[in-house]
Amino acid sequence: MEHIHERYYLTYPRALIKEPILYQLVKKFDLMFSIRGASVSEEMGLVAVEFEGEPGQIERALTWLRQTGVTVEPIEKNVIE
Question: What is the set of domains in the chain, with CATH numbers?
Answer without folding.
Answer: 4-74 (3.30.70.260)
